[in-house]
Amino acid sequence: MTDPIEAPSGAPPFDAARFRQVLGHFPTGVTVVTGRPEGGDPVGLAVGSFTSVSLDPPLVAFCPASTSSSWPEIEASGHFCVNILAEDQEELSRTFATSGADKFQGVGWKPAAGSGAPILDDVLAWIDCEIDAVHEGGDHYIVVGRVLDLDAPRPGGPLVFYRGGYGRFQP
After folding, report:
1. Does residue 7 carry a pLDDT above 50?
2. Given this model, what pLDDT does residue 9 score?
3. 1: exposed, middle or buried (C-beta count within 10 Å: 0-12, 13-18, 19+)?
4. What is the DSSP letter of 157?
5. Taking a C-beta distance cutoff of 8 angstroms, is the pair 43, 74 a contact?
6. How many CB atoms lie within 10 A of CB 81?
7. Is residue 165 in a domain?
8. How many CB atoms lie within 10 A of CB 154?
9. Is residue 162 within 8 Å of residue 88, measured between CB atoms?
10. 169 near 101, Cβ under 8 Å?
11. CATH code of 43's domain
């Protein structure tokens, strides 16, 4: 019989910079999560922490920072749309990663039929969702969405974020 493993106590043996540096070795796709509060202007934020969760029912998840000013407005709407950026949309990602700016100025979009959340022009794919659950996860939230509709309207490769920079995927 082996002894149980004890949980570590106190601070981890690394700092936030080291955590970010090591996890940066995992490439992520780049998305913009959008929403539109009832009677309000569209809002959005760049998100790299996005994943599929379940096929039955169809669920996806993303993780906005708890300090995000856009997330509370998206949450209040009850819906969101994940816009998967194409390899030529780095500037769009940078725009939506900026805090406090008018992110939709000069950006084309149409409302998703199911939720009204903005589908950005020329994205590689989009997933329209209803918020199913929100969980606290450290300095972020874990948002689970039930997929209402989705499409991949254009060919091409995804925009990828890796080790602190943007890149492209070459099969």
Report:
1. no
2. 67
3. exposed
4. P
5. yes
6. 32
7. no
8. 10
9. no
10. no
11. 2.30.110.10
Identify the CA nearest to 81 among candidates 158, 147, 160: 147
- Percent of the chain past pLDDT 90, that is, above it, reads 72
- Could you report how far apart the first and last alpha carbons of the chain are, in Å? 48
For residues 147, 153, 157, 162, the Cα torsion angle rounded to the nearest 10 degrees is -40
Q: What is the 3-state secondary structure (H, E, C) of 7-23?
A: CCCCCCCCCHHHHHHHH
Residue-range definition of the domain harbouring residue 61? 28-160
Total number of domains constituting the chain: 1
pTM over 0.85: yes
Q: DSSP characters for 68-102?
A: -SSHHHHHHHTEEEEEEPBTT-HHHHHHHHSSSS-
- Residues 96-154 have pLDDT tens digits of 999 877 899 999 999 999 899 999 999 999 999 999 999 999 999 999 999 999 999 99
The phi and psi torsions of 76 (rounded to 5 degrees) equal: -60, -30
Residues 6 or more apart whose Cβ sits within 8 Å of residue 91? none
Residue 23 lies in a domain: no
Question: CA of 11: how far to CAs of 20, 83, 140, 153, in Å?
Answer: 16, 37, 19, 46
Residue 45's beta-bridge partner residues?
A: 33
